Amino acid sequence: MILSLKTKLKFNLGITLLTSPTIKTFSQTPGSWTGGTTIQPSPTLNSTFSLSNSIGIGILSPRAWQEIKYCKPASGQVFPGLILTYDNSCSNFFPPFSPGNIDDIAFPFVTPGGPEPNQILYPYSFLTGHHTNILQPLYQPNKSPLLWARLQNSSPGSFSGMEEYETKFIVQSDGSVGINLADPRAALDVRGSQGYNRPVAIFGARTLGTGTTVANGLFKYYTQQMHFVSRLSDNGYNRISILNDQGMFFSDGMGQEGSNLNGSFVLAPWAQESEANLIGGMRMDKLGNVEFHGSVKATRLLVEAKWWSDFVFDKNYKLIDLLTLERFIQENKHLPDVPSEKEVLENGIDVTNMQAIQQQKIEELTLYIIQLKKELDLLKIEIDSLKN
């Protein structure tokens, strides 16, 4: 690997290396760096590089302030491109590792209150932030990030009048990662745009058969993906969305502008093939129809009905006479307007429609009872008249 420098290197170890006007290179071997002076880094000492131009590692002409370039090693060799190592033996901050310990990634757990019936528990405060300053660069000063990418706003143009930092990416020493956040609350914590209908995260793979060539011969394509949106507008991505909803959406990338054409979404436990009879879960198709395998438990079920049966009580409604009804039942083995056993077994039951049909039959039955009551009253009158 080659290290190229276009300016002088200054180390706080008291050693200064001056480069010639031309590019000077240092070959990196398994031993120390050489170039007239031997430098031996130590985990307990800091080496500071003061540069006014650019650094290239593996490249003689860096195309940025710092560029690292490496080639794939020979077949069979294991040679990572970049490793960041936090030497835990240098610090007393971390407890000794034990396989039986709980991994406290991100915030440590706290007790929000004593155990009480029906108490909603939460492990820690969900407060976070991305904007810090020179007085307190990190929200948790006892954590030393492994990697930290940030923007710097210098005074007097900053919000607070002092040097400020806006974190774009941070990897904490406990393994938690923040994107656009300086204080990640979980193994992965992402802050997206506050704009409407802007995805916070997209996960997917290339949709083959899609794509177009854009400027300068570049090629872009759509993806088969899921994405999360933290702030939706009315009809955002779907007409079911209401202003300020949050949503998760899926697409096969085959529709207009990468929308869904035929894709479906499955939410289910991963089950072994031998557990085929125990598989349960949910599947949503391209129209939003949801298929469940298993039981659905709810405290209340509200269904939007397309029709209801109160037309039975309209004065113009023609009630089938009982003799005609009897013949129909004998011939068809089911009530009029009610699906047969064969239809139900083949197509299932439309619960909403069936509820309305059953209500219609209840109301018709009520009319039959009223009609029979009137006929019974007439018979009583006739019987009483015969007795007298």
Give a structural overview.
The protein is built from three helices and 19 strands. By secondary structure, the protein is an alpha+beta fold. Among the domains are: about 80 residues, no CATH class; about 80 residues, no CATH class; about 80 residues, no CATH class. A hairpin with a 5-residue loop joins strand 18 and strand 19. The radius of gyration is 37 Å and the shape is elongated.
Low-confidence stretches: 1-49
Coarse morphology: elongated
Helix content: 10-25%
Radius of gyration: 37 Å
Assess the beta-strand content as a share of residues. Answer: 15-25%
Helical segment tally? 3
Distance between the termini: 124 Å
Topology order in helix (H) and strand (E) letters: EEEEEEEEEEEEEEEEEEEHHH
**So what's the oligomer here?**
single chain
Please identify the structural class as seen in this structure: alpha+beta
Write the layout of secondary structure elements.
Blueprint: E1 2-5, E2 9-10, E3 16-17, E4 24-27, E5 55-57, E6 66-68, E7 131-133, E8 147-153, E9 164-171, E10 177-179, E11 188-190, E12 199-206, E13 212-213, E14 219-220, E15 223-229, E16 247-251, E17 265-267, E18 281-284, E19 290-293, H1 322-332, H2 341-347, H3 351-387
Parallel strand pairs: 5-6, 10-11
Antiparallel strand pairs: 1-4, 1-5, 2-3, 7-9, 8-9, 9-10, 12-15, 13-14, 15-16, 17-18, 18-19
Brief overview:
It contains three helices and 19 strands.
List the main descriptive attributes of the protein structure presented here.
5-stranded mixed β-sheet, single chain, 19 strands, elongated, alpha+beta
